[in-house]
Amino acid sequence: MPTFDDMKGNTPSKPAKAKPETVKVGNVTVRIYKRTRPTAIGKSRTLYQIPDYTTGVRRFREFTEHAAARREAELIAGKLASGDATAACMLNADAASNGRAMQLLRPTGASLELAAATFAKCFEILGGDAMTQAATFYARHGANSVTSKPVADVVAELLAAKEARGLSAEYLTDLRYRLGRFAEAFAVDIGSVTTADVQKWLDKLKLAPQTAKNFRTVVGTLFQFAEARGYVFKGGNPVLAVERISANGGSIEIFTPDELTLLLENAAPDFLPILAIGGLAGLRATEIERITWQDVDTASGFITVAAGAAKTKRRRLVPIQPNLSAWLTPYAKRTGLLWQGTDKILRAARADCTKAAGVAWKDNGLRHSYASYRLAQIQNAAQVALELGNSADVVFKHYRELVRPAAAQLWFAVAPPTEAAHGRGAA
User: Fold this and answer.
1) Same domain, yes or no, for 225 and 287?
2) What is the reported pTM?
3) Among the residues of 106-194, which ranges form H helices?
4) Which end of the chain is more exposed for a tag (fewer CB within 10 A), N or C?
5) 305 and 406 co-located in one domain
6) Concatenated DSSP letters for 33-45?
7) Could you tell me if 87 and 219 lie in one domain?
8) How many domains does the chain have?
9) Which tens digit of pLDDT belongs to each residue from 223-240?
10) What is the extent of the structural domain holding 97?
């Protein structure tokens, strides 16, 4: 018989659909769906389903017992909460992408989280997605085979190598001083030092142009050494891009004939030849310290600067002017190196001399003086360049018309007093 509701034309009401049970761990929720499924004999059975996205596609896992379903839901929720598996709360497309990412990373052993963090950091450093290009450059320049080594250790190795090659004590002292300061400022792996690091360090030193240029050159030598030995990747010398320093902007300082006279007359016997040869033959200070008395041939009238002693590694002959010969005559019987003391003693002798003479010292003043007065004397830049071991362009550019020929005549007339010539230069 029709019910009252049927008579009113209303459809029978359906039982309300049960809400899924939820398991929550932290902010992660996993649902358990209770389902009723008919059997072949006309009865029904209860199943518990849990959605699983971990394979990249949503699949329902079924359990006949509620306790087993709940344990699995708690396990999945716990993993999700700890970040081990995020796919279960993703859309199908995201889950599939996650699965492919995990598959790509499997040979590396890296987690998806580590890979994402690394990519984000590289993106920040490179200013965009240029990781492939950066990795290619890295491999091409052998950066993956670079040996890590502290700056101080590389400095010590460089000094040992230079000393083994028999380089001069003066050169080694200069390297030790300049590179020592660099190593103190950079207590890091040498491969981590950048162009900006070196530039900032040089700027903070606040040095005169020539001194700053010398520091740049020496530090460049250190990185060339490091690159050749695999401590810096190939082509990774940071000094190459450091601002080049011009030391030619300042004025050339020279001594006057009177100043030279005072210096020579107040010089200690062992220091006098150093002064005389620097001012009256124009040799570099390093060259003077490398030559021997056998190279100073007053009889032939020439000083031989061998290739090993010359800065340019080219042998040259420098004429001995008559007044220089007069200053050196008392030393004719000496043998060995012109200067046999240490650099410290040499600097002390120079300080004593300038103080006694009342003449301020000028850096490279002796060589600059010779070049200026010699060019004024003979008016031949090519000849002066041969004597200096420079190019004619350098001589012409820096020393032309600094002094008059009359001043040059006075310079090359600076000679020892007759009585002094007999009392100097004990053998």
Assistant:
1) no
2) 0.50
3) 112-126, 131-140, 151-164, 169-185
4) N
5) yes
6) EEEEEE-TTS-EE
7) no
8) 3
9) 999 999 989 888 888 999
10) 21-109
Tokens 């001589």 belong to 395
Per-residue CA distances from 394 to 147, 253, 277, 372, 385 (Å): 42, 16, 21, 12, 8
Q: How confident is the model at residue 132 (pLDDT cuts 50, 70, 90)?
A: confident
In a domain, 12, yes or no: no
| Domain CATH number, residue 324 | 1.10.443.10
Backbone angles phi, psi at 63, to 5 degrees: -135, 140
**Pairs from 33-41 (Cβ < 8 Å, separation ≥ 24):** 33/60
The Cα 150–Cα 172 span in angstroms is 20
296-297, strands of its sheet edge to edge: 296-297, 302-305, 316-319
3-state secondary structure (DSSP) of residue 283: coil
**Residues 389, 274 share a domain:** yes
Rounded Cα distance, 84 and 80, in Å: 6
Q: What is the identity of the amino acid at 2?
A: P
Amino acid identity of 226? A
pLDDT (0 to 100) of residue 190: 94
- Do 277 and 416 lie in one domain? The reply is yes
| Structural domain contains residue 205 | yes
